[in-house]
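<instruction>
Derive structure tokens from the sequence
<data>
Labelled lines for chain and fold
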Amino acid sequence: MEQHVDAAHTFVFGDGMNDLGMMKQAKYSVAMGNGVKTVKEQANYVTDTNEKDGIATFLENFFKDEF
């Protein structure tokens, strides 16, 4: 099902080579700390690992001035 959300309003998170395609499409690409080197180099941001709640950490820091 298509959602009609443009790339400027999309965040993607990834850690493996299979995530590179979506990272190229979104304005905000975030590599997990446990991700492979190539993914970290491609991403706009790198956050903490999955085990250390990297997605939550990124979102809290990114939106800290919004709330």
Observations:
- The two ends are 31 Å apart (CA to CA).
- The longest helix spans residues 54-62.
- The chain has a mean pLDDT of 93.
